[in-house]
TrEMBL record, chain A:
<comment type="subunit">
    <text>F-type ATPases have 2 components, CF(1) - the catalytic core - and CF(0) - the membrane proton channel. CF(1) has five subunits: alpha(3), beta(3), gamma(1), delta(1), epsilon(1). CF(0) has three main subunits: a, b and c.</text>
</comment>
<keyword id="KW-0066">ATP synthesis</keyword>
<keyword id="KW-0813">Transport</keyword>
<protein>
    <submittedName>
        <fullName>ATP synthase F1 subunit epsilon</fullName>
        <ecNumber>3.6.3.14</ecNumber>
    </submittedName>
</protein>
<dbReference type="GO" id="GO:0045259">
    <property type="term" value="C:proton-transporting ATP synthase complex"/>
</dbReference>
<dbReference type="GO" id="GO:0016787">
    <property type="term" value="F:hydrolase activity"/>
</dbReference>
<keyword id="KW-0406">Ion transport</keyword>
<dbReference type="InterPro" id="IPR001469">
    <property type="entry name" value="ATP_synth_F1_dsu/esu"/>
</dbReference>
<keyword id="KW-0378">Hydrolase</keyword>
TrEMBL record, chain B:
<dbReference type="GO" id="GO:0045259">
    <property type="term" value="C:proton-transporting ATP synthase complex"/>
</dbReference>
<dbReference type="GO" id="GO:0016787">
    <property type="term" value="F:hydrolase activity"/>
</dbReference>
<keyword id="KW-0139">CF(1)</keyword>
<keyword id="KW-0406">Ion transport</keyword>
<keyword id="KW-0066">ATP synthesis</keyword>
<dbReference type="InterPro" id="IPR035968">
    <property type="entry name" value="ATP_synth_F1_ATPase_gsu"/>
</dbReference>
<keyword id="KW-1003">Cell membrane</keyword>
<dbReference type="GO" id="GO:0005524">
    <property type="term" value="F:ATP binding"/>
</dbReference>
<dbReference type="GO" id="GO:0005886">
    <property type="term" value="C:plasma membrane"/>
</dbReference>
Length: 81, 294
């Protein structure tokens, strides 16, 4: 699935991933391929993107995530890499 | 007529001025490109954000109880005036300041008389101008253009939003220069708070059944402050790009004017030189004739 992490200053990450773990405001959750459409708010914490190439982590200061048709879109106000 | 030496030194001084304005123009052009990049970088975030807000609010009523939506009788006004830190940019700063003042005189005259208009200045020039005019000026965020990024603008936006939510201000307006193209800036006045009802998204009734986590309402309450911050961030980015555009045009004009002045001065210089030579020749010829006559 396609993952995009965007802040107002720049695009932090775009690429393919096999799974993404989010710091949801109601608790951590993981999104895999063919996940149902979802909109969720995020708490402060790490987003872990797992792809064929390896694992990458981005710490966000809250935000929103939308999952739709294998497209994962994260809007965060600040990312501390 | 000015002496040769005077003209020569004027030419030299205008030459160096022209070099400076030319260099400033190049610098402004380079910075303008970066400022425009900033706008393009911000655009996807803003677009996706409003998209998301419309998908989420397609089902639910846009959180009517949001603290940022309450329209109250206007008693206390906060005006966010976005200018630049520096001059040498034509009428850029003056235009924004003038627009803010005419806004105060037209719409908030009563509040201004009661001393209830506060200015939040983003950019040193605006702060100086409003302090001089005796307004109450919040200069905490005056330096946002030192390193313009979302984190610094966000703090200013949050202060305005908190002020509105806690009832310290009843309305918050932004005055800024919008970037149309390098030569054109458009002065814009936008209401930031209370939120102006967004136009109904045309046919945006999403067929998708989203899972909302934790709930639609809470997501909307999360999204609304984000759009407000983006609104202010966009205004500062636009103003920043406009500033470099204005500076570029101003410096281009200055370089051109210096060139014209140089042309005129060179004409004067050559004419004076010619006159001096002619005079010398006349003297020599006169002297020679006097000798021959003897």
């Amino acid at each position: 699935m396609q993952v995009e992490i965007i802040t107002p200053d720049r695009k932090v990450f775009t690429g393919e991933a096999t799974s993404v773990t989010f710091p949801g405001s109601e608790g951590q959750f993981q999104v895999l391929n063919d996940h149902a459409p979802l909109v969720s708010t995020l708490a402060r914490g790490p987003i872990v993107v797992q792809s064929a190439a390896g694992q990458q982590s981005f710490t966000v200061d809250g935000g929103v995530v939308e999952v739709l048709r294998n497209k994962v879109l994260v809007l965060a106000e600040a990312v501390i890499v | 007529m000015a002496s040769l030496k005077e003209v020569r030194s004027r030419i030299a001084s205008i030459n160096s001025t022209q070099q400076i304005t030319k260099a400033m123009k190049m610098v402004a052009a380079a910075k303008l490109r970066r400022a425009q990049d900033g706008i393009t970088q911000m655009r996807p975030y803003a677009q996706k954000l409003s998209q998301m807000l419309s998908t989420v609010s397609a089902g639910a009523e846009l959180a009517a109880d949001s603290p940022y939506k309450q329209a109250r009788p206007i008693e206390r006004v906060l005006l966010i005036v976005v200018t630049a830190d520096r001059g040498l940019c034509g009428a850029f700063n003056t235009n924004a300041i003038k627009a803010a003042i005419s806004l105060i005189n037209d719409r908030y005259a009563a509040q201004a008389r009661a001393g209830n208009v506060e200015i939040m200045a983003l950019g040193k020039k605006g702060a100086e101008a409003f302090v001089r005019r005796g307004f109450r000026v919040n200069t905490k965020h005056v330096n946002v253009f030192g390193s313009l990024n979302f984190a610094t603008v966000r703090r200013a936006a949050e202060e305005a939003m908190d002020g509105f939510a806690s009832g310290r201000y009843d309305v918050v307006d932004i005055v800024f220069n919008e970037f149309k193209n390098v030569a054109t800036q458009i002065i814009r006045t936008e209401q930031m708070l209370p939120i102006v009802a967004a136009e109904a998204p045309a046919g945006a009734t999403s067929a998708v059944n989203y899972l909302f986590e934790p709930s639609e309402d809470e997501i909307i309450t999360e999204l609304i402050p984000k759009t407000l911050k983006i609104q202010l961030f966009k205004a500062t980015l636009e103003s920043n790009a406009s500033f470099y555009g204005a500076q570029m045009t101003a410096m281009d004009k200055a370089t051109e004017n210096a060139g014209e002045l140089l042309k005129e001065l060179k004409l004067v210089y050559n004419r004076t030189r010619q006159a001096a030579i002619t005079k010398e020749i006349l003297e020599i010829v006169g002297g020679a004739e006097a000798l021959a006559a003897e």
